[in-house]
Predict the 3D structure of the following.
Amino acid sequence: MLPTPAIQNPDSGMETSLPNHSPRLAGAKRDQLATPADVAAYLGVPVKTLYQWKYRGIGPSVHKVGRHLRYRWREVDAWLDAQTSYDLTA
C-alpha cells in the first residue's frame, strides 16, 4: 500500500494526512490505470457491483492486463457522463 501523503493545514499550520480516496490524491493519479477498488471508491459502489456490471456489459469499459482488470479514468468518466443524461421535462 502506498504511504498516505501529508499536507499542510492552512488553519492550524499542522500537517494532516489525506485519505486514499481524496479528490486531490485521485487527481494526481489520473494518468495511471485504475484498479477495480479505485473505481469502486470513486463511484461509491462495492467492487462486487463493478464485477456484475462487467459480466452484464453495462459498466465502464474494463481492460485485462495479464490477469488483472484495469480501467482508464477517461473511460470511467465518459461512462459516468452517459449515465447522467436523462430528461427532466417529463
